Amino acid sequence: MTAPLHIAVLMGGWSAEREVSLMSGTGVADALESRGHRVTRIDMDRDVAAKLAAARPDIVFNALHGTPGEDGSVQGMLDLMGLKYTHSGLATSVIAIDKQLTKLLLVPAGIPMPGGRIVKSETLYDADPLPRPYVLKPVNEGSSVGVAIVTAEGNYGNPIGRDVAGPWTEFEELLAEPYIRGRELTTAVLGGQALGVTELRPKNGWYDFDAKYTEGLTEHICPAQIPDDVADACKRIALEAHRVLGCKGASRSDFRWDDERGVDGLFLLEVNTQPGMTPLSLVPEQARHIGMSYADLVEAIVDEALAGAAP
């Protein structure tokens, strides 16, 4: 167990995932206080560096989600300030937040990911970039923010119209990927160990932002009721992605699995370097399944950050 520390918990911020980050940060801060640590809660704003300098914590628990807490910006600031912090460092964060950069690193390492390409949103009004059905997603947002599944039936029009709401009205560029039928799986990694595999079954539609963070909208099956070879592949791929990207602390790898194709139907979609720590979040759920309490998980993340920090 970590000796009592002064820990600043960084949460909130101004990304689309602000409210989720506040929930994560509150849970983390409460858990740390329950273990006897002194906690300074900081809601990220433009004066965050001054607040951290005034607090002078032993370590920062980064509970931010999305930009700028997950894209390397905050990591670079903390590096310049000489502050130890949890989760991945600057270079890993820059790569992992960008879905295309992640592919460029992981696919040559033998990790199966969907094909696809970056498209200018403006071009979607003239023609589809891929055969339908396909998926459009922002290159560097998390929590399924801005994701659209364009179906063969033309749920967004054919072609997509300028007057139709969707990510093409919010982002200049999008990643277009083939839609993979099947099931949603996810695997958390902590300290060089894959914790388990969870299947996510949305009650309605697909696993979007609301389904992720609204209680009762998604059934979590932990452990996933899938063949052993598929579960083993999820864990192996998640560990390898964590290693190749250079992740620290906890990461979470999200998969689509075409259950008509066996292991060959398993594709990694993305690696989340700042996974949620809310009551509905998947990393705490998988930790519980292997006998690790929420507070144990939080302290394990802090311990790894301290062990890996430069003296």
SSE inventory with pairings:
Layout: E1 6-12, H1 18-34, E2 38-44, H2 48-55, E3 59-62, H3 73-81, H4 90-96, H5 99-106, E4 117-120, E5 134-137, E6 148-150, E7 173-178, E8 183-190, E9 193-194, E10 198-202, H6 209-213, E11 218-221, H7 228-245, E12 250-257, E13 266-272, H8 282-289, H9 294-308
Parallel strand pairs: 1-2, 1-3
Antiparallel strand pairs: 4-7, 5-6, 5-7, 8-9, 8-10, 8-12, 10-11, 12-13
Account of the 3D structure:
The protein has about 300 residues and is of the alpha+beta class. It is about 30% helix and about 20% strand. It has nine helices and 13 strands. The protein has helices spanning about 20-35, 50-55, 75-80, 90-95, 100-105, 210-215, 230-245, 280-290, 295-310, and strands spanning about 5-10, 40-45, 60, 115-120, 135, 150, 175-180, 185-190, 195, 200, 220, 250-255, 265-270. Strands 8, 9, 10, 11, 12 and 13 form a six-stranded antiparallel β-sheet that branches. Helix 1 (about 20-35) crosses helix 9. The protein is globular. The relative contact order is 0.16.
Oligomer: single chain
State Rg: 19 Å
Number of strands: 13
Task: Extract low-pLDDT stretches.
Answer: none
Order of helices and strands: EHEHEHHHEEEEEEEHEHEEHH
What class would the helix/strand composition place it in? alpha+beta
The helical percent reads 25-40%
Largest sheet: 6 strands, antiparallel
Number of helices: 9
Q: How much is the average pLDDT?
A: 91
| Terminal Cα span | 20 Å
What is the approximate shape?
Answer: globular
Percentage of β-strand residues: 15-25%
